[in-house]
Amino acid sequence: DQLISQIAAGEVVERPSAVVKELLENALDAGATQITVRLEEGGVKRIAITDNGRGIAADQLPLALARHATSKIASLTDLENVATLGFRGEALASIAAVAAVSLTSRTADAPHAWEIVGSHHAAVAPSSGPQGTTIEVQDLYFNTPARRKFLKSEQTEYGHCAEVVRRIALARPDVSFSLSHNGRTIDQWSVCEMAKRSAHILGSDFAEARLAIDESAGPLRLHGFAGLPTASKARADGQFFYVNGRYVRDKLLVHAVRAAYQDVLHGDRFPSYVLGLDLDPALVDVNVHPSKIEVRFRDSRAVHQFVFHAVQRALSQTSA
Ligand code: ADP
Ligand code: MG
């Protein structure tokens, strides 16, 4: 049973950044508006995430750490209409199989917080703290040295974690985030508009030369900002695409945006952008890969054409 858990964990928890992603999605699912991420040694030593969401009731704490204990699928039809970010009910169990996990949480109606340390077999004990949840993940892969060997340097693992925080913070300007590494605060983003959040994260070059996009056609809507190459330096990490609020790196979408830039601006420089495509969840499958970074559209040609034309039209405003 323990071995099976550890193997399953490898799929969900391939490195510290994967833990950070799952925990941030849980915090957002819980309606948090304030999230603090504290990392030590690239997240391998410690990942601690605190949110002010609705919390977990004392009797639910062991369940949260048990496999397939998701509170997010009410019925089978929900599977096709996954509104919340997580729905597999195995992230926390997988993380607990390969690290030392403690969960402290308080719901609005509880007189105080409760905590559980280690596994779903452990006893729930009284604790303290405000409404919301803190989850601490320590010594990742302490019991699976073979996996631990595949981790890169502290700075590299930290970089992956910070990238995950950036991606999520870019999609949620309505939530404040803070990120620290080895006790030092690295980033702090307060609640603001999307225009401001994207400027904070992508820098002043992007803020000064970009076009706003908001176009709809039938069930499709594209919104966000397309940077202009005149000012924005070409940077490999400045391209962000979201489908229904979820960060994706999808060939079809990247191609559509790139083709639009080439069509209008002819250059081979590829500026920064932050774009969100919203569509009926029934028209897209976001569950093709455990890390959920690729998507499959029911009508990929229509999506490609729509994205291409929307970006093309926005960019054409400048070259007219
Ligand atoms: P999933 O997110 O797929 O349901 P997880 O293993 O990530 O599964 O989490 C298990 C359960 O623990 C969730 O369904 C949720 O009820 C609870 N939970 C986890 N993290 C939080 C959090 N930060 N705030 C409130 N509830 C949480
Ligand atoms: Mg989850």
TrEMBL record:
<keyword id="KW-0255">Endonuclease</keyword>
<feature type="domain" description="DNA mismatch repair protein S5">
    <location>
        <begin position="198"/>
        <end position="316"/>
    </location>
</feature>
<comment type="function">
    <text>This protein is involved in the repair of mismatches in DNA. It is required for dam-dependent methyl-directed DNA mismatch repair. May act as a 'molecular matchmaker', a protein that promotes the formation of a stable complex between two or more DNA-binding proteins in an ATP-dependent manner without itself being part of a final effector complex.</text>
</comment>
<dbReference type="GO" id="GO:0140664">
    <property type="term" value="F:ATP-dependent DNA damage sensor activity"/>
</dbReference>
<dbReference type="GO" id="GO:0005524">
    <property type="term" value="F:ATP binding"/>
</dbReference>
<keyword id="KW-0227">DNA damage</keyword>
<keyword id="KW-0234">DNA repair</keyword>
<dbReference type="GO" id="GO:0006298">
    <property type="term" value="P:mismatch repair"/>
</dbReference>
<dbReference type="GO" id="GO:0032300">
    <property type="term" value="C:mismatch repair complex"/>
</dbReference>
<comment type="similarity">
    <text>Belongs to the DNA mismatch repair MutL/HexB family.</text>
</comment>
<keyword id="KW-0378">Hydrolase</keyword>
<dbReference type="GO" id="GO:0016887">
    <property type="term" value="F:ATP hydrolysis activity"/>
</dbReference>
<protein>
    <recommendedName>
        <fullName>DNA mismatch repair protein MutL</fullName>
    </recommendedName>
</protein>
<dbReference type="GO" id="GO:0030983">
    <property type="term" value="F:mismatched DNA binding"/>
</dbReference>
<keyword id="KW-0540">Nuclease</keyword>
<dbReference type="GO" id="GO:0004519">
    <property type="term" value="F:endonuclease activity"/>
</dbReference>
